[in-house]
Structures are given as structure tokens and as C-alpha cells.
Amino acid sequence: MILGLISKLNQWCLNLPFRLHWFFVIFTAIIIPWLTANHPVKAQKGEWYPFSNFPMYSNFEPTAYYVYITDQEDKPVGIAPTFGSWPTAVKKAYDAKLKAHAKTLLNKKGKLGKPSKDMTTEECRPVGDAILKQLRDASKFPEEVKKHSGYRLYQMDIYLEEGKITQKPKLVGEV
Amino acid sequence: MIQKITRIWRYCFAFEPIQHAWWETFLIRAGIAYAVWHSCKDPRSETAQPVPHGLTAWGVDFTWLSNNQTMTWLVPTLAICLWVYVLLPIIGEALKKAAWVIDLATAVILLFPLWISLGNGTLINSQGAMNHTTQIVTTALLGQWLALAWSCYRRDPAKLPRGYNSQQLAADWTRQLMMATYVVSATTKLIQSHGNWLADTPYFGLQIAKSTGQAFYEWLSPPDNAAWLSQFFIDHPHLAQVMLGVGLPLELFAFLALYNRRSALFFGITLFIFHSTITEVMNLNFFYHKLLLITLLVNPSWWLVMAARKLVSAK
Predict the structure, then answer these.
(1) Whole domain around residue A20: which residue ranges?
(2) Which of A49, A94, A165, A167 to probe by mutation at the B interface, max B CB count within 10 Å?
């Protein structure tokens, strides 16, 4: 009976149209995540360009945030013309480092691995400083970077307060 | 009733391999070549690989793609390769017996754009953040290259599946890979949200607020997305569920687009609308997705030619 089932399954697979399509679905959804499971950066798990199992907006949470950069006088600075990057990339890089750093902090139970959402502004600072430094040093437009004496990185927290979307900035980095 | 539904289902999703005419495959190659050119013609702004990803994790260095001097020879070479890739197979279509030689030449030439496209995407993703803008372009190129390589290996066009020639096979495999990206995205979406995806969609409003802020701080210019929708989704959660809920089955069943020209047209148009809606709401571009959906799935030239032929024959 089992052999019969296997034979039927084999026949079904042979008759399956678009076998390449299904191979790539399995390859991208199962094999790539398995091969990249040990990557130290969480965001890189399941990713091996151009293969990606990334589900855009898979998990809508009741909080969100983005980051922006200002000069020393808190005047906003365009991320694209100054650093040759864009806010989503800066946020993703910051978020990845933040989560990695959170793993080294103690949580409420006194064990390693604090949720990144519970990190205080001071705990975020080393990560924010490092991201700003990386942006400043690797900028494609060093002349633009030199126009300001220093930079600040802000994390803009977005959450609901009495049913209204509320935004609150916090300083997380300075160079 | 059931018979009627079955008949409609069969009409919509009957398996009819798409046998493209030579000018259709020419337009498909032109669309893919334009996407590659558009995504690779400028030097990258990333000058380092701080968080190695993909091939860079294996020690491959792609930072030369940010070198202006390298671009002086790279850009013209890329242009030549893409022109040859678009035009050379037209000769192959005319040749019957030695067509595999043209396929071989095209496959070899295509290696260069494929490497550049792969390098660009890998370099962008080696900055510590993931970016999926050009993923579809490299995937499409990979589909084209795999089909040409397979055609060379088989040599005899009669040995290719479903009576395809090499270019028809390339279009079919490219579509298969493209649709796989949608199916995988939907599957992971369901798994990672533990099936709660639809229940949490009202919080999408927060994501819109986030995208609006991000769009502003990129160039310090006011974004032109529908920012008002952010609070609207919070105030009307059921409407948010309906509007966003449509996207999931569209991605999950994207493989149905592969069955025939009609289903390809349907999924091409609906996915195009899906991406355009996200562009409007979230300020995310999806230029390459839209371009390749039009080129490979909607394929307007074929429908226009068919309509014109019908009009002429009716007269």
C-alpha cells in the first residue's frame, strides 16, 4: 500500500505542471532559510540574493518606528543627498544591530536577551552611534558630509494613544 | 450550477502553453534588458560590504561596482551585451537546425549582465539591511539564462518541453520564477504571522505613518503618498481587512497565472494594481515589478494584435 502511494505521488510529481516553479518555491521557502539559519544577523536569515523568503508586512504590530538624521542644531538632514543611502536602509541596518545588541543585555528575569522594544534610550546609544559613524565614513558624498560639524540619529516611535496615531522622537546616536 | 462553475474554471485556467510569436519574445527580452539597464547603469553608492550577504559572504567583492573608473568600461560593455541579447535570438528564430549555436552565444553573453545584476543586488544587501527592489530583475535574468542553457544542453528544439522553442521556453521559465517569488512571499507571510495576518491588518495604519516619515527624511521633500489613510485604517479596521486581505490570495495563487494567456493577463493586471496601490499608499516604487508584469504577463502587444486581427476579419 505504501509503495503504491509512493508510486502515485511520484506519478503526480511527474505530471505536475511548472515543476521549475515549484522547485524554486521549495528552494526559496525551505532550502535557503535552512542554509542561512545560522546567520548572525536575523534579517539575513532566509536571504541569499536573489533568493528571498521575505514577506513584506507579514506582521503588523501595534508599534512601529523609523529613524531620521539631523545636524547638531536638530535641523533635519536629507539622508539620500548627504549619505547616498535612504531611510529604510538606515532603519533596517539600525534595527538589525539593535536586535543583536539586545541579545547581550539582561532582561527583566536577569537572563541574557532583552526584547529590543524594552531597550532604554541609553542602551540604544552605542548602536545609534555606530550606525551614524558607518554612514558618515562610508558616504559616497564626503563633501556633503563635511558641511555639518556633527550628526544626530533620532528614533521616531509610532504608537496608538486613545485610538490616535502618535509619534515621539528619541535621540539614539550622535557623532 | 456546478457544471457552469467547472466550465468557467476550465476557461480561465485550462492549461494552454503560451507559444509566443518571435516579436513577442523580442519585446519580452527588450523589457528585461531595459530593467537590467535601468538598475545597473549607475555606479553604486555603497563602497563597503560591512555585513556580507549572499556571494559576498563567500569572499566575493562587489565594491568595484561603486568605482566610477570601472563604470567607464562596464556601462558600455553592459549596453553591448544587452543589445546583443535582445537582437541575436531573432537570427536564432529564423534558423531551424543550428539555433542552439545562437542560444549558446546568447547564454554566454547574458552571463555578464547576470553577474552585474547579481553583484548590484548583493552589494546593496551587504550593508546590514535587506532590499528587494531589484530581486525580480535578477530573477528574471536567471530564468532567461537557465532556459537558454537548457536549450543548448538539449540542442534539438524537439526535445524542449511542450513544443517550445528556446525563446518561448525562456519566457515560460522566467514567468515561473517570477511567480515563485510571489507564492513564497505569501506562504512566509502566513507562517510568520501564525495565521493572524488578517486580524492585525488595521495596524497597517502605523506602517503608512512610518513610510510617510521615511519618505520625507530621504530628500526632505513632502511625500505624495496617501498619508491620510494611516488614521483611516485605524478608525475603520474592517475596511482595512478587506482592502489588504485581497493581496494575500493574489500572491498565494500567483502560480495560476502560468496556465494560459487569459490567466496571465488577469494576474498581471491585478498584481499591477496591487503594486500601484502600495506605491500610492506607502510611497514604495515597485518599478521593476510593474515593468516585468506588463512585459511578461499582461503582454499588451499580443492582445492588441489579436484585437486588430479580429477587427480586420470582421470587416
Answers:
(1) 2-52
(2) A49
